[in-house]
Recover the amino acids of this structure.
């Protein structure tokens, strides 16, 4: 038993003392500008969100698409092959899929929350003086003909 234990100990000591003399970089990306980026994976591709825009990168590190915007408080939701970026406490949102941006939304009320279905249907919780309400949009950003759902605090 002692010989086996000594053999295992020597094996792990040799393994942990390895040094490497060569390596290769698969891909790299230099961070420019703001360091407050949000990263999300969507069907094998990496999405990078900042206050200035979104970039989609494939597994080889190649940019698939990018889109610029100006948001103070971007919040990202991804579901299946669709995603939405909403500027919380502001009035804009961007809808995208694997190929790029499919639509934009501009509201007259501040956005409190956003969600998206796997089919690209967006729901936004909007802030109103007397109550909040939920509105629905298709993946092009067009408001759907569904009556808003009001949420009262009384």
């Amino acid at each position: 038993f002692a010989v086996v234990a000594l053999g295992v100990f020597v094996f792990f000591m040799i393994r942990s003392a390895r040094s490497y003399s060569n390596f290769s970089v698969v891909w790299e990306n230099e961070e420019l500008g703001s360091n407050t980026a949000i990263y999300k994976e969507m069907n094998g591709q990496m999405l990078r969100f900042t206050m200035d825009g979104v970039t989609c990168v494939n597994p080889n590190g190649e940019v698939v698409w990018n889109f610029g915007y100006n948001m103070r408080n971007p919040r990202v939701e991804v579901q299946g092959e669709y995603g939405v970026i909403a500027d919380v406490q502001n009035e804009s949102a961007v809808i995208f899929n694997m190929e790029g941006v499919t639509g934009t939304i501009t509201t007259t009320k501040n956005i409190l929350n956003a969600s998206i279905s796997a089919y690209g249907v967006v729901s936004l919780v909007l802030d109103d003086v007397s109550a909040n309400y939920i509105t629905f949009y298709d993946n092009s950003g067009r408001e759907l003909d569904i009556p808003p759902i009001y949420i009262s605090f009384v």
In short: Helices lie at 2-16. The radius of gyration is 23 Å.
